[in-house]
Amino acid sequence: MALRLSILQPRRKSLTRGTVLALASFWVSFRISGFPEVHTCLWLIVPLLVVCVATWDTARCLQRRWNFYHGGVILLIYVDLMILLMISFLLLAPFSNALL
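Now predict its structure.
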């Protein structure tokens, strides 16, 4: 019988999987966009969608009653949302004339 890690099973809740997916997508988006010389690249939509999935995966770990674990999950959701906004900025900024 093969040993399956709980991180690799999408049906199980995992804070680690959501956080790793979000941070990996953030790193990939920096590499794709060519940061600091940001250029137009529609491939940034892929990391944006992966961060959306990672945020959903993190949000599944919320509990009904408030405790410190619940507060930590909310903090990680805020981190995912900041990553989502940064990738959105890297995707949309080259289309404006603000970065000349």
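The first helix runs from residue 15 to 33.
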